[in-house]
Design a protein that fits this description.
By secondary structure, the protein is an alpha+beta fold. The chain folds into two domains: 74 residues, Arc Repressor Mutant, subunit A (Orthogonal Bundle), CATH 1.10.10; 171 residues, Beta-Lactamase (2-Layer Sandwich). It contains nine helices and nine strands. The strands form two sheets. Strands 3, 4, 5, 6, 7, 8 and 9 form a seven-stranded antiparallel β-sheet that branches. β7 and β8 form a beta hairpin. α7 packs antiparallel against α8. The protein is elongated and about 70 Å long. One of its GO terms (molecular function) is DNA-binding transcription factor activity. It comes from Candidatus Pantoea deserta. Pfam families: HTH_IclR (PF09339), IclR_C (PF01614).
Length: 253
């Protein structure tokens, strides 16, 4: 393997060994055994990685930890808002599926559209960024509301329930029943609610580093199929959400 490949193998070893803050770190022997290289080669490799700030060595234990350069880069990378982090992946998904993609978040009991991505199939029925919609009347809003307990949802709406479109939950009890199902499924569906003839699928992501929660959504023409949505579309949305979660230290809710 090349020096770059060996350095990558060392960094991957931190994950394989479960090295986190407070962990003693990797020993020289850990690296020799993992890479199966001569000790002299490993010694030069670790010394180079240390000099470049990729690794740091504890003065007492002589164990290795992730260095300041990598920590600075990853900290900057992971601190970006999920709205921005997820945008390239959602743009690619919208282009691949032909659907309209959205990234949204809650503001009180409203859903606010933060980003919109055109798919290949043009439709005039769009909800542009900045739009505010009743959260209870959208798949995106409901997947975000499902992150709260039933008691918290009832407190949110008990004095502010507003009439919703005919295909949306018509009572607070009906909304709570839908949210209970969404918590089990971990995704949400809306059909012909905010816009007639339009359906949407949504999932939620949470960035544990700074408490940022957003919903990823694909909007498409309603179908007459028995499942009410294309299963392959849900699979692609969940796969994209999982990729974003893995890259940015987020959790697929």
């Amino acid at each position: 393997m090349s020096t770059l490949e060996n350095a990558a193998a060392v960094l991957k070893l931190f994950q394989q060994k479960g090295v986190t803050l407070g962990h003693p770190g990797l020993t020289f022997t850990d690296v020799v055994e993992a890479l199966r290289l001569p000790k002299s080669t490993v010694s030069r490799l670790l010394a180079t990685m240390e000099s470049q700030g990729m690794l740091e060595r504890d003065a007492d234990s002589r164990c290795f930890h992730i260095g300041r350069v990598l920590l600075a880069v990853s900290g900057h990378y992971l601190s970006a808002p999920l709205v921005d982090s997820a945008s390239p992946d959602m743009a690619r998904l919208a282009d691949k599926t032909g659907c309209i993609g959205y990234i949204s978040r809650l503001d009180g009991n409203d859903l606010v559209v933060m980003r919109m991505f055109h798919g290949r199939h043009f439709t005039q029925l769009i909800t542009p960024p900045g739009s505010r919609l009743p959260a209870a009347a959208t798949s995106t809003g409901r997947v975000l509301l499902a992150q709260f307990s039933e008691e918290e949802v009832r407190q949110r709406f008990e004095n502010s329930w507003q009439p919703l479109p005919p295909n949306s939950p018509q009572t607070l009890d009906a909304l709570c029943a839908q949210l209970a199902e969404i918590r089990q499924l971990r995704w949400s569906l809306a059909r012909n609610e905010t816009l007639p003839g339009i359906s949407s699928l949504s999932v939620a992501l949470h960035n544990k580093y700074h408490g940022d929660t957003v919903a990823l959504c694909l909007s498409f023409l309603s179908t007459a199929n028995a499942l009410d949505y294309p299963p392959a579309l849900l699979d692609q949305l969940r796969h994209t959400a999982s990729d974003v979660a893995a890259k940015y230290g987020a959790a697929l809710l």
